[in-house]
Amino acid sequence: MSAQEIPNLLSLRGEPRSRGRGRGRGSGLRNPLNQHSESASNRVDKVIQGTDTDAAVSRLSAVTLGYLDDPFARYFVSSSGTRRLPIINRDLLVDAFLSKPDECPTVTKQIISLGAGTDTRYFRLRARNGHQNVVYHEFDFPAVCAAKYRLVQQNHPVLVGTDKLFERKQSDNGGLDATAANAQESMEWGFTHASKDESSAGYICHPMDLRQLSEIHSLERFYGIRNDLPTLIISECCLCYLNAEVAKNVINWFTGKIKSVGLVLYEPIGVNDAFGQMMVENLASRGITMPTVQKYKTLEDQRGRLADLGFGVSGGGANAVSIEDVWDKWVVDTERERVDRLEGLDEVEEWLLLARHYAIVWGWNTDTGFEGLRELRPLHTRQIF
To answer: Rounded to two decimals, what is the model's pTM?
Structure first.
């Protein structure tokens, strides 16, 4: 497999692809003073934002071929694009977090998705009525949030039915939204049930360059985020683009303000071998790096990272597995057989090579509210899919 064919992160060709209507990470950031003159950092940001375009195309490809069930993927992609290798359904950890043992009372929980881009998880939760006791937040660059807002407006009835779409000016941006090109890009927006007011919002999108998060001193800066709920933070190939210390500070910012926190990371690993180096070199050719990948090269490194962040130390738990392990040990035979029959996958070696270089890393700092994660086991003792 060539470096240009690595899915999700590394298959961008040339400039980030436009998907029409100015949407997604590929829509880029505008310079209000001179749109023809960009700083190097802005160009890098545009490439990083463009990875969401690639991920959305990969997801739609997987849906079209039958690997994933996501009826909303097509609303965030203008075309099906080229065929990609199958991608693993990574919702099992979110589902485990939202689940509960029968003896536990139903409690409201909170999800914070970092670098969410075109992710459709909230809409999928809503479609199966899994959003009733969830407060769902997404963070991304202002341009990305504004583009997603426009797409949601255009497909409102299909995505959220009669739920009311609202937007509001951030309480105090303190001049921090330097990447916001206009007032629309600095607006928080979300949904509330048609019969309820805005204070009951179940989904809120926050425009924010996470590199500036440490300059925010109060959780109240972000509308609707609560500090009294068990909270799961998700980063799917987001924090890996930040300086390792900045990425650490982002997580510490939330854990310092919210008592009960869990974390799920989906990131590349294994950059020491030839395939891993090819991944790194491909990114470098575009002028971008993944600092956390250089620091946390192995699953053991990632487990140490969780401990350093306070997960599974004095309470809770922590784990890290490769996508290859997920496929081998966490997916039931019937699902594996179903996937194998879809195309008679003849790229098993390529798939396994790719799967060895991605990891799912998760931890939580207290057991209360995280019973589902605590009970999560490989297939040997519990079936997940």
So the answer is: 0.79
